[in-house]
Every structure is written in C-alpha cells, then in structure tokens.
Write a structure and sequence with these properties.
Layout: H1 16-32, H2 53-62, E1 67-69, E2 74-76, H3 83-95, H4 98-124, H5 127-139, H6 141-147, H7 153-173, H8 176-192, H9 199-209, H10 216-244, H11 252-270, H12 274-285, H13 298-308, H14 313-329, H15 334-337, H16 352-357, H17 369-397, H18 403-420, H19 436-460, H20 475-485, H21 489-499, E3 506-510, H22 516-522, E4 528-532, H23 538-546, E5 552-555, H24 559-562, E6 570-576, H25 585-595, E7 596-607, H26 615-619, H27 628-637, E8 640-648, H28 653-662, H29 669-678, H30 680-687, E9 697-704
Parallel strand pairs: 3-4, 3-6, 4-5, 6-7
Antiparallel strand pairs: 1-2, 7-9, 8-9
Length: 709
C-alpha cells in the first residue's frame, strides 16, 4: 500500500543514505549493550550466556560433541538445534575470542533493521513506512540487548527475515532462485531454532488454497523448495535418529508442553503459584524435572500431555489467553534491566495484583530509571499491538493491496504466537522478537492511514457542499490547466527528450489536450501519432492544431473505448499528467499493455507526493498524487518491466507547497513561464546527472514483457 494509494511487493529505489543511517544507528545502540569494554579489560563469556548454547560450544571446542553441562559430567543434548552452537564454536576456534563472537553478533543484529526495512518496502512500497520500520528495529532496546548476549534470537531472526525477503520477492517475481534461497535461509533458521520447521509446508498449503499453484512450473518450484529445505535439516534429523531413535529436530515441543503448559494450566485453574504446580506435576508422574524428558522417551510424555491437559480446561483457556496477551505486549525489558547498574532495581513482590491492593507501598519503584523503561515499554507494546491489528485490517481491506503478501505477514505473526502457547506462563519478549518487523510495519500502516484520514477531515471540514466526483468536474477546469501549462515549453521538452529513446515509430498520446506535447512528439522521428483526447472543449483545439500533419490521427474518446482497435500495435503510449485523472488507474494500465506491441513502452508522467495534494489538484480532477514505489507497483502489476523510474523537478516542491497547498493559489501563465525559463534549464542540467530522493513529479518508462512460455 503506497500511502498515496496502493499496496504491493516493491523494491525501494536505492539503499542510499537512509539504509546507512539505520545500520549506523542500530550498531551504535547495540554496542551500548556489549558486556565488555571495547577498550580492553577482562571478560567472562559465561556472564553473557544463557540456555546452554555457550556450554555446548565449550564441549564442541573440547572435542566432546554436542553436549552440555560441565566437562566432567557432560550431557548429550536433544533440546537445542546445532547451528548456533556451531557458529559460536566456529568463531571462537578461528579467532580464539568470545568477544569477536559478540561483535559479529552485533553486526548481524545491526543488519536486521535493514531486512525489516526491505520487508516493509516489499509489503507497502511506502518509503516512510520502510524507513520507520528500520528505525524502530534499530532502537528497540530488547532487540539490541539480545544481540550482545549468547542467545539464538539474533541469528535466528536474521535468517528468518532474510528468508521472508526471498519469499515475498518470489510472490512478486516467481523466480526459482528466490524460492530456493528462501528454502536455504529458512533451513538455516530452523537449525538455529526449530520454530520455523512447519512454515514451508504451511506456505504451500496457503498458496494452493489461494489458487497460486495451478501450473506444473509452480508445483515444481514448491517441490524443489521442500527438497532443499529438508536436505538442510536431514543431517541433524539423521543424528537424532542414530542417537535417540527419534528423527525429530528437538524434544523442546514435548518438554515445554509438559513442563510449562500443563503446570501453567494447573496454577491458573487451582489458584496456586506456578512454582508449586510444576514440582507437583513432576512428583505425581514420578519425575524429577524437565531434564527427564528426552527424544528417546518423548512418546511417554506425549501420552502424559494427552492425559493431563483435559483435567484443566479452564486453566488451559486462561493460560492460552495470558500467553496470547503477553506475546504481543511483553516488552522483555525486565530480562536485562538488572544486568545494568543504572537500570537495576528491586522489584520483588511488586506484582500487578499487589500493586493494585496497596499502590503507595510501591511508589519507590518510580525512582528507578529501569522501572520507567519497563512502564514505557509495556505501554508502547500495548499501543503497537492495537495499531498493528488496525493496520493489518486496513491493509487487507485496501482496494489495491497485495492481500496474499499481507496474509502471509499476518499469518507468521499468529503462527509465532501459537507456537509460543506451549511455554505457558514462562513467556517473555524473546518469543515475539522475530516478528517485531511485521508488528512495526502494520503499526505504521495504521499511523499513516490515520494521519491521512485526519488531514483529509481537516482539509474538508469547512466545505459545505459535498465533494464533486472528480471526473464530473466541468471541462473548463481542465482547459484552464492545459492552457496555463502551454507556457511550460522547456518543461515539456525535457520530458519529451527523456521519453525520446523509447518512442519508436508508432506512438499514442492519451490526454493530448490542445496538442502542446503532441507537437513536441512530432519533432522527434516518429512516423505515426494517434492523439486521443476525450474533452469536448479540448478536442477541437487539438484537431485544428495537428490537422496539417499527415502522420497524425486524432480521436475524441476515452482510451478504454478505442484500445481494442489498436491491440499490440503501438511502439509507445504516452501519458503526461493524465493517469492521475483516471479513477481506475490499474485497469487503464492494462489497456495500455494490450495496445502495445511486445517490447513496447509505456511512458508515464504524473504528479508526486500525496502530501502536496492541494485544492488545485482536486479542482482539476486529480484523484491522487504518486510515489515512485506506487508507480512501480502499478506498472509491474499490469505486466510491465520498469526500465526507468525517477522523481522529477525537486525544486518545484517548495513553490507548489507554498502557493498551491498553503496559500491555495491557482496556476498563472506568467508564473509558469518565469519558472520554465529561469529554473527548468538549470534543474535539467543538475537532475540529469543526479539521483533524486523526492520530486514534484514521477517519470516512468516501462516495457511490455514478453508473454511467458
């Protein structure tokens, strides 16, 4: 959704300064959380370790294999998948330093915001949403902290999001290389953390029911994707079969369900603490701890799960509700605040219920910065969740959104929430972190939509008469606009010269008006021009102006009414300041596509930046202004390959905003002529050799793709 108007899978125009700034910001924030000084000093690796991955790496380096525990009493591990411990061991073996490992992890963590930015671009095509997503991921404290700690989240999220970029790109381009890259990246993610092990199969099921697998080629792509994915997992599955007699990737699903979900349900139904419920469950079944659950005996514990869970239906429902709420709103900041003296505080006994019973006894907590950070984090994630749900709804109901891509994005969020349910009351912010990107994207979609809605209400709240449908605007408005723009000879010549290499022999100009741009087109080497103009006021002027040129055929019609007569005929079709007048611009581009020969070009010039939409735009019949991302999406959706896409006339933004947007002036021929003679020649010389981040207009040239064989 380009907020201008549509949603799709797109590329951002250039990585440029925004990407560099986001990476630098992410790197700076993550370096602040490093558990050692960059200037030197001692560092105990165990102080930055959790969940056994450091222990396994020590055993691997010692030559003991995939084991945890002490070197004197090793335990063969069947909970963790192998890739992250092997990354730790590999880096330390090569460099001899756990500091280098954490610095590498910080660099990988700093790339995650760029992947989030790319996904936002692929989903929305909106530069502001893409940059906003990158910035939020760069500065979010929990994501920065896990980058400096030996936990799986950083590498898992890196592989997961990189795989999402490949998958969303495949939805757009349908290239085999993209879906195979997705398989490799998701395979690596699964070997870091098995959460994603079911996603490739689920994606195929969704694509099937979405009608995307109707060809042999599509099924071949899916089959090859599964082959690559499971080839990556196969060695570890084989190892588990040999060691444990069970080819599952990990025992974690069974062990977590038994040791966390069931005690959570017990605690909530019987109103006892979790710390009491868990050992009570172990004692009842004759086990000591979660360590008793292994891949070898997992079938026994699956049977116990089936036996116990039906006994606690109310507690289970409460646990699922609490876990679902906590998945979206848990900021995770309490996990690390007490590791830093500036943020640490004594929160013992400060539960929500006890604070509500006796609020004044806990006012001391407000004197600690860490408490303010946690309160702000919780408030932010509650608001983010509400806005993300709204944004997902707006995205999925938008007329031109890529609903399949949006569905996959939303599905992955809820998939991660569902897989988190087994952890019960032990949930924390780590479980949501991989899909924070999608939460931020849809939150920003909602924000952009709400701002646009507020601005539109503010702009029109003093207008007594209803807004007239734009295409029913009286024709003299169009005439006045075209008459004024006739003074912009240098401006139009500049546009014509950019289009000139793509024109060919037979050209159509749609919305030719009184023939100003048509005359410039005829100064090039074209052999035939079909000039189309629907306006009753403009067409006589057009016909009179061009009637002496034998290369010209004039038509008074809407292009949609005559395009069938010209199927596959034109070398180029030109729309200069026309597409914004067409309500159904997607369909209009399909008409253009049908009328072009294979390899022919659509030459499009439109007003840019919805923020510049002014009363004059409304008066002369503009439905919208565009961004580059939206133009690319529209063209690619219509079957074109974009060969040139650029902003145009950056200097024109300021006078347009001041005079048309703020002062609500109208175009005056004298002002246009002065700007055309004084400014345009200079800007042409500069912009010809410069990439523009923004501009008053967007210029695009797109080639009709050859039909797929």
């Amino acid at each position: 959704m380009c907020y201008d108007s549509t949603v799709t899978c797109l590329r951002l125009d250039k990585p440029g300064k925004a990407a560099i700034a986001i990476f630098a910001l992410a790197l700076f924030v993550r370096l602040l959380f490093l558990p050692f000084s960059l200037l030197g000093g001692s560092f105990e690796p165990g102080s930055a370790a959790a969940d056994g991955y450091y222990e396994i790496s020590v055993h691997v380096l010692h030559g003991d294999g995939f084991e945890r525990g002490t070197l004197a009493a090793p335990i063969v591990d069947d909970v963790r998948t192998p890739l992250y411990p092997l990354i730790i061991a590999g880096v330390v073996w090569l460099t001899g330093s756990y500091k280098i490992l954490l610095l590498l992890q910080v660099l990988v963590g700093s790339i995650i915001p760029l992947l989030g930015k790319k996904i936002a671009e692929l989903l929305t095509g909106h530069r502001g949403i893409a940059i906003g997503t990158g910035v939020l991921l760069a500065v979010e404290p929990f994501g920065a902290w896990v980058s400096s700690f030996m936990l799986t989240e950083t590498f898992f999220t890196f592989f997961f999001l990189a795989g999402c970029v490949a998958f969303f790109s495949y939805l757009r381009d349908k290239k085999l290389s993209q879906i195979l890259l997705f398989a490799v990246l998701f395979g690596c993610a699964t070997l870091v953390k098995p959460t994603t092990q079911f996603l490739p199969l689920l994606f195929i099921i969704i694509l099937f029911f979405a009608g995307q697998l109707k060809t042999k080629r599509a099924w071949t792509h899916m089959a090859l994707m599964l082959v690559v994915f499971y080839l990556i997992l196969a060695p570890w599955m084989y190892r588990n079969e040999r060691v444990w007699g069970n080819s599952s990737l990990s025992v974690q699903t069974v062990s977590a369900t038994y040791a966390y979900l069931i005690p959570s349900a017990m605690a909530l139904q019987e109103h006892i603490p979790f710390a009491v419920a868990q050992p009570q469950l172990f004692a009842e079944d004759g086990y000591a701890s979660i360590e008793d659950v292994t891949l070898s005996n997992s079938a026994i514990f699956k049977a116990l799960i089936i036996q116990h869970l039906p006994r606690y239906p109310v507690g289970l429902a409460k646990s699922l509700a609490v876990t679902g709420y906590a998945f979206f709103t848990n900021d995770g900041y309490l996990t690390f605040t007490n590791r830093y003296p500036l943020l640490s505080f004594d929160f013992r006994g400060a539960t929500a219920s006890s604070v509500l019973k006796n609020p004044t006894s806990f006012l001391y907590l407000l004197s600690y910065p860490g408490m303010w950070l946690i309160a702000a984090g919780r408030a932010f994630w509650i608001l983010c969740t509400l806005l993300a749900f709204l944004g997902l709804y707006l995205y999925m109901t938008a007329k031109n959104s890529n609903k399949l891509a949006g569905f996959f994005a939303g599905f992955m969020v809820f998939y991660f929430m569902a897989t988190t349910a087994i952890i019960g009351l032990a949930i924390n912010g780590r479980f949501r972190y991989p899909v924070d990107t999608f939460m931020f994207i849809f939150m920003l979609v909602a924000c952009v939509s709400l701002v646009a809605y507020w601005k539109s209400r503010r702009a029109y709240k003093h207008i007594a008469q209803p807004i007239v449908p734009l295409r029913s605007t009286p024709a003299h408005y169009e005439g006045r606009d075209l008459e004024t723009m006739s003074f912009a000879q240098n401006y139009h010549a500049w546009i014509r010269d950019i289009f000139k290499p793509f024109l060919g022999d037979k050209v159509a100009e749609v919305g030719a008006g009184s023939g100003n741009f048509s005359s410039l087109l005829l100064q090039s080497d074209i052999k035939e021009l079909v000039a189309v103009e629907p306006s009753q006021e403009m067409y006589p002027l057009l016909k009179k102006r061009l009637e002496g040129d034998l290369r010209v055929v004039t038509r008074q019609a809407l292009f949609k009414d005559i395009c069938g007569e010209y199927k596959n005929q034109f070398d180029a079709i030109v729309y200069v300041n026309v597409l914004e007048h067409v309500k159904d611009h997607e369909q209009e581009l399909l008409y253009i596509h049908d009328a072009l020969r294979e390899g022919g070009y659509a030459c499009i010039f439109v007003p840019a930046l919805q923020g510049l939409y002014s009363p004059l735009d409304k008066e002369i019949g503009h439905y919208r202004r565009y961004s580059k991302g939206e133009v690319r999406q529209l063209l690619e959706a219509a079957g074109f390959e974009v060969v040139k896409l650029t902003y145009f006339d950056i200097v024109g933004i300021v006078p347009w905003f001041i005079f048309m947007k703020v002062l609500k002036k109208k175009l005056q021929g004298g002002d246009v002529a002065i700007y055309d003679k004084a400014v345009i020649p200079v800007m042409r010389a500069i912009e010809t050799h410069t990439w523009l981040p923004v501009g008053k207009n967007v210029l695009a040239v797109a080639r009709k793709r050859a039909p797929k064989k």
